[in-house]
Amino acid sequence: MNNTVNKLLYAFNEDTNLKKDRWTQERTFHSIGDCLNTKKWIAGILPYELLERNIKQAIESIVTLCENNIFYDIFPDNIKTPDYGDNWGRLANYIEINNRAISQMDKDRCCCGIISSIKLLPAIPPSAKSWANCIILSQIFPNIYGDSYNKGPFEENSIYGIKLNAGYSSNIISYNLSDKISQEEQLSAFNDLAHFRGIKTGFRTVISADQIKISHPDKADESFNWNNNSHVELYINECVKLMNLGFEAMFIDSAKHIGGYDMENYTGVGELPGYEQMQYILNEIRLRSGKTNISFAGEKSSDDFERYRKLGLNAGTDFITGDDFYKVRELSEKMKYNRIYAPGVEIENDNYEGGISYEQRLNRINTALFGYYIASDKLPSFMQTNDIFPLNYDTNTHHIMMTNPSFSTDGSSESHWKNLFAKDDGKLYNRRVAELFAHALCL
After folding, report:
1. Fewest CB atoms within 10 A around its CB: which of 5, 80, 97, 108?
2. So what's the pLDDT on residue 1?
């Protein structure tokens, strides 16, 4: 069976006949303008309301929100990514979803983050007429500090350390379903469902050598070395595999420092690839996957924009925040002739440890969505889970990147999901975010 969404339904002992989801219809939020009836999503919502639903309800919800207003009784076989051209990443909104944090936690174990990510898809705003929204998943590969386990709130379990040649993370994949649907098919099903929603997808990866291990079935893990050609080949091929499963963006941690640039501010651990070496790597990922439309987004940008464009990137983070609308609009005007690379407007990054109010966050999102003279000149933007679904007051974005605590009071996933996020104020904030997107999606 090539239809991985149907295969996912079978794996959960569900049939493939779909029905319109009334629950979704009662909570549907619409864009404003001439695409009123096409751009739809769920808003004014708490994440656990979605995460507690079963997989069939989630898929029916996604199909109910179909942009062309056709309801598919059976999920279609051939889903194409929304087409915004090869350099779509130059204008995109990147929304990083920490799929490990929303995984199913059963006492001290966790799994199935990709299933939770599917359940969250109905509440992610679709792409606009002029630019794409792109989900970046925080974790794909196994992490080296305790994959498949949640630990205490201050025990290291960092997403920034990964294993290659070890398949995909047990935090993310359901290995209990592996006799019915493979790891790769689970990831592919997520991508098909996101693309059906009109959303592009990507993943976060690291390039600091001491944060990467190579797994072997018959010996101890091996430290990664950028001077070892076989290691470089493995790195390229692991990324190509993901692109062939439907991902089309890659967020590169510490990309600013490639080639030894600005190393006094480098906070990663271990050597980085050389500049020409990274040019080769990114070009090879495009060539071997056969995809000309891959977007490479790099962590941090400086004003040496040509350096990043020539490297092969399309967007860079942490150059300007959305605090000053007029500065962002003027930067958009300055960059409008560069159609391949642009620095991005930051709402929040993965190192955020608190301190941004709801009002400041909403102002930044407003600037990111409207800070231009013409929509086709928009700068890319970067958001975190917290910017769409606020986390509770006892945690923050960086904390759940570095650790993997359960917030459950009874050991159940349902309790964890309820307590991971803010409650009534988070629900109101989520609606206010939706109101901003509603005015932008028809532009």
Report:
1. 80
2. 61
What Cα–Cα distance (Å) separates residue 441 from each residue in 127, 257, 341, 350, 360? 7, 34, 22, 26, 22
Burial state string for 52-89 with b = 16 or more CB within 10 A and e = fewer than 16: ebebbbbbbbbbbbbbeeeeeeebeeebebbebeebbb
| pLDDT averaged per 10 residues, the chain (length 443) | 93 98 97 90 98 98 95 96 97 98 94 98 97 98 94 93 98 94 98 98 98 95 97 98 98 96 93 98 98 96 94 94 98 97 97 95 98 98 98 97 96 96 97 98 95
Distance CA 142, CA 383 (A): 23
What single string gives the DSSP state of each residue in 143-206?
BTTTTTB---TTS---TT-EEESS-S-TTTS-GGGTTTS-HHHHHHHHHHHHHHTT-EEEEEE-
pLDDT at 26: 97
Q: How big is the chain, counted in residues? A: 443
**CA 79, CA 57: separation in Å to the nearest integer?**
20
C-alpha dist (Å) from residue 182 to 168, 190, 245, 285: 11, 13, 12, 23
How many secondary structure helices (H) and strands (E) does the chain include?
A: 15, 15
Could you give the C-alpha distances from 249 to 29, 117, 203, 296, in angstroms and in order?
Answer: 27, 17, 7, 6
How far, in Å, CA of 249 to CA of 134, rounded? 8
- Within 10 angstroms of residue 156's Cβ, the number of other Cβ atoms is 12
